[in-house]
Amino acid sequence: MHQFNFNFKSLAFYGVTIASVLLLFKVVTAYGQNNLTAPPAINGRYRLVFSEKLPICEKSDALILDIQQSGIYLNGFLLPANGKTSETDKTLTGKLTNQQLSLSGKVLHTTICNSTDSQTQANTRFQNNSFNLIKIQIQLVNRTHFVGQMNLSGTSKGIAFTATQQKTQIQKN
Predict the structure, then answer these.
(1) What is the Cα–Cα distance from 16 to 34, expressed in whole angstroms?
(2) Nearest to 121 by CA among 53, 58, 62, 55
(3) What does residue 149 show for φ and ψ, rounded to 5 degrees?
């Protein structure tokens, strides 16, 4: 039979090390639960209703903002209310920080104004296929209703809007 010799220094060292690791694990877990949270899921389509007519448009209707999310990073598309896109629609990019969403990019003038190409040609200020720089700031009120402001290139003030999440329809094959 083997005789075990317990060295008190080794036993104390291993006991302190195990206790330290357990304490560190408990502290890190408590910090994570209290301070680290995933950003809210805001993927989807939102109908933007403006508080006033867009100054660059002869008439302006509601727009659809389609948001795709990866953590705090966002991509989006501005679509006419009919939801049709074209190959020339450009992506908005942005970030979600402190319950505020920021998106910016270039969008076709025809998309912003919900106009056809013939209506755009009639407007002497803009050429067919012209782009507008857009910056969108949104405060997250809750997951289905946002308030925000859109700034357009060529205008001096932002236009306020409300955004309401659209119900997604399941298509049957």
Answers:
(1) 27
(2) 58
(3) -145, 140
Q: Which residues lie below 8 Å from residue 48, measured CB to CB, with a gap of 6+?
A: 62, 63, 64, 65, 150, 161, 162, 163
**Which is more confident, 99 or 119?**
99
**CATH architecture, domain 44-165:** Beta Barrel (2.40)
The 10 Å Cβ neighbour count of residue 128 is 12
Contact (CB, 8 A) for 156 and 133: no
Strands (E), the chain: 44-50, 63-70, 73-80, 92-97, 100-108, 131-140, 145-152, 159-165
20-43, pLDDT tens digit by residue? Answer: 999 999 999 999 988 888 788 888
Which residue has 């720089």 as its token pair? 133
Helix (H, G, I), strand (E, B) or coil at 22: helix
Average pLDDT, the chain: 80
CA 50 to chain CA centroid, Å, is 19
